[in-house]
Amino acid sequence: xxxxxxxxxxxxxxxxxxxxxxxxxxxxxxxxxxxxxxxxxxxxxxxxxxxxxxxxxxxxxxxxxxxxxxxxxxxxxxxxxxxxxxxxxxxxxxxxxxxxxxxxxxxxxxxxxxxxxxxxxxxxxxxxxxxxxxxxxxxxxxxxxxxxxxxxxxxxxxxxxxxxxxxxxxxxxxxxxxxxxxxxxxxxxxxxxxxxxxxxxxxxxxxxxxxxxxxxxxxxxxxxxxxxxxxxxxxxxxxxxxxxxxxxxxxxxxxxxxxxxxxxxxxxxxxxxxxxxxxxxxxxxxxxxxxxxxxxxxxxxxxxxxxxxxxxxxxxxxxxxxxxxxxxxxxxxxxxxxxxxxxxxxxxxxxxxxxxxxxxxxxxxxxxxxxxxxxxxxxxxxxxxxxxxxxxxxx
Length: 395
Fold this sequence. Notes:
alpha/beta
């Protein structure tokens, strides 16, 4: 029998009560007024705020889900365009669930899975990414082995050849570009400075396939998942560390009950080292910076304080908060396959965040996600740093 893993497979109709009872209260369109001081930064949904049609907000997408499952109309190209305009940032669900117990982000995910199964999704712009992930085990279409090259010659143990306490999962994003590899070097430097015993999988490191899952191709995601879990278990590592929140979310939420190995974000490791004083930055990093909470790291994985604690160890850093911060953080625009399908929307979303950074007095933006970093850097209007990058500068 073919070996696959999944949590209990959910269907769109499992959430029928959610999309039938949505009262269009518009909580999915703005931040709670108690949490923000200006109307300018009260918006919470990138695609809804950009396009200003009800169908692009969560309430509209729930209405689409209701109409589709009630067989009121056949999905069209526009239907697909709308549901793939969502970054899956989760902020609508953050607003809705505490008050109404509804799951709009989950419903949008499951609509995408339904679209893929029925053939009206994903969008044409996503298909090459899926094919590249299937054929070359990475969404960028790079030749297999590029992750091994990214860590080669750096004195890092290969965990398949030399046992280590921890497995550091590099991830496709950091290894795929020269700029990403510089931040990868910073992460390796910081883990070493923290006194962490770790190894990498090198050329044998697979893709987590979070992008495949995001566009709704769960079958392709699961085809590789069981194999990945067995590989991780074979290392004998007591924990997995990753710097990519997308990898983190997949390993925690999708693999979790089958993996049985703790999965940590690198900022959690750093924060622990700072608290125990095993990491003591010595050089000042003088800048006024705002920390951006990545959607996957924050809302999806509920990691808010560790990055801030890590940054608190930096002398000279004036750390500012966005008006929309923590669980109310505005998206960078990179999630959900949106940059491929609607690059204008993705760029506009990033620009909105940089406007907000300047409004709170920041000269620099800091984040803890390689996808956020890339999305903001493409804008070119404000210096962007990764948490590990700044800490490496301070050693």
